[in-house]
Amino acid sequence: MTGKAIHISPVFMALILTGCAVDKPRPFPSPAPLQTLSGVIVERQEQLWFQPCYEKRWWPVQDFTVQQELTEYYQQFTKYSHKDLYVELQGAVDVTLDNTLLVKNVNTVGGTAATCHFRLDDILFRAAGSKPHWVADIYPDHVVVKSINPLGRFSFKTTAVTTDTHSADVIFADETEAEPAYTVAHYRESGDEKSGDKRRQPSSRKKPFDITIIEKRCVDTASGTLLPLTAQM
Fold first, then answer.
1. Is residue 217 in some structural domain?
2. Binning pLDDT at 50, 70 and 90, where does residue 208 land?
3. Greater confidence, 209 or 165?
4. I need a surface site. Which of 49, 63, 119, 156 has the fewest CB within 10 A?
């Protein structure tokens, strides 16, 4: 029985022994306390600059995020057009480096300078989905859901609880009353089959309703916007 000799080059053997290098985040150098900031970033002469909302000053940026994802997101959204991009991030201002903003984490990416003026008055949290399209606005005592399919606006009286792991808030219908304080319109078709006259009538069925908010990043598939939390309804 004979075998074939296999020649392995020294370079290939080195790759087998060492594997691929893993990108490690650069250590955050500043002892200054982290701040949570919102504003816009823009690139000028190969330098990122950050301007906080409602302020006129610009801070030079050093990107210490994992794999420099802040820079990557900026290039992805602007396609090297040097436009402003709305972000929410965590960083520290180093006064010894001409007030350079050292960015450690990026939470939200997407929008323009006009996003600074966007407000959700009296709303605790807004969740939304694009497939199918729906928006759920969570208020202190109720949730309003706007949906395209089925088309309509639905209101739920709610109670909020927090899980043991503190990783999610569950919004559910309040059933402490004799009758549930919510009604979801489920439709069934009815009518005269001979005449072809069909009407959509609400059925008497009622379904439980809940929204779970998870501390997990979410990327909007329609716009590419990065958000810090994920919601399931």
1. yes
2. low
3. 209
4. 119
Q: Are residues 183 and 105 in the same domain?
A: no
% of residues, the chain, pLDDT over 70 = 67
Residue where a domain stops, chosen among 54, 82, 117: 117
Pick the closest to residue 212 from 157, 171, 164, 161 (CA basis): 171
100-133 core/surface letters (b: 16 or more CB in 10 A; e: else): bbbbbbbbbbbbeeebbeeeeeeeebebbbeeee
Assess contact for 224 and 110: CB atoms under 8 A.
yes
- Residues making up the chain, counted from first to last: 233
Q: Is the separation of the CB atoms in 61 and 49 below 8 Å?
A: yes
Q: Domain containing 99 — which CATH number?
A: 2.40.50
Q: Which residue has the tokens 């959204």?
A: 77
Which residue in this structure is represented by tokens 């790759």?
15
